[in-house]
Amino acid sequence: MSSSEGSSGPAVLILAGSPSDLDLALDCQETLEELGIPSTIRILSAHRTPDATVEAVKNAEKDGYRVLIALAGLAAHLAGVAAAHTLLPVIGVPLAVGALNGVDALLASAQMPPGTPVATVGLNGARNAALLAARILATAQPELREALARRAERDRARYEPEAIRSEIESRREARRKSRGE
Ligand code: C2R
Fold it and tell me: Ligand 1 centre from 102 Cα, in Å?
């Protein structure tokens, strides 16, 4: 599943361990799209489709990808296995699923042995993974750096006193309505 309309430059390969993870993979892709970064989503599992996973990761660099993002829940080995088969930076997104609600995935993704790094973001941190990938790419792309700066500026604008006043007003109104006033 590719997304490259209106964009150029190095791309991100998004790996997800199961079709069940697609919503968060799409959150990740949408965030990249907002910054004009082309990406591809591939559903691959180090456990269930080990050969195809290794093949995709080994080919990623020559296929033009510059950063890998791997989303997985439970015993999340996908990011680690990816990092073992490429020198591209790998960002792991542990997913909050299953009996342990993501603690298993978080530890499996973060606690990599020395020599095989995975930059692990928070549980379900698909959008932050995209932003981290963007920051990595931006070190060599000034226009992407500009886009990130504009985005950070928009985030800061939400904290302006005028924005807060109008937020308070609209929340007050919503609360009055929900009480039927
Ligand atoms: P199903 O819902 O398909 O049973 O998957 C997936 O990321 C998913 O969150 C349950 C969970 O298993 C995870 N999974 C991994 C890997 N492959 C699948 N952690 C892997 O290779 O690490």
Answer: 11
